[in-house]
Model the fold of this input.
Amino acid sequence: MYSRTQGDATYTFEPSGGLLHAALVMQDRETDTYWSILTHDAIYGAEKGAELRQLTGSMKTTFGQWKALHPETKVLSVEGEQHVESSPYDKYFDSDEGFRGLKAEDDRLADKAEIFGFRIDDRVIAVPHSLFENGGALIKVEDRNIFLYREKDDSHYQGTVAMLIKPHFNLVRSDGGWSLSTPDGREISFKPEKRSFGVRGAITRPLTGFDTFWYQWSLTNPETSIVEQAALP
Done:
């Protein structure tokens, strides 16, 4: 999710109808500029080169889990239609091929290996889901501790829970879940399976990023480094 503000300007974004390496390109109504969601910058138009500010706090999840958290949720429908039995995306997700045969030029991972991609300290990082989809893992990027969480049977539409953990706080397994061990010896439990960011504030903060396929991410971000090992499974 991106902020609509860029300097003193406020943009109204909508789908452009175009794709960049099979990923959505947005268009703003005010300047008719095109913005790539995977690079967070303007790729064509009056604002070319400008960068959008990515926001934390949004939740990508299934409706079932959302409704369990927010039972009062109201659903918008189109002429009374709220659900369809099949999705045109099902065939795409079940296939090993990219959109219209598109392939990665970087063969370090399979074309449709699912990854969590993010930017931190001017670095572009990709973490394969296979590294942490057994219920979470701690990874280290230089001096940063990053916790990523998802279950093996999570839907393609399910977002990874990602958070930065403050230095000197240790992450440990606790009673089948997770807890943070504080410098003064206390243990604070949190439940990433609730699709929340756990303990907020001084200890953890959300990390923004994307769940996508390797071919889309690598074609758009060729400078990507891949995390190959977790610090804590």
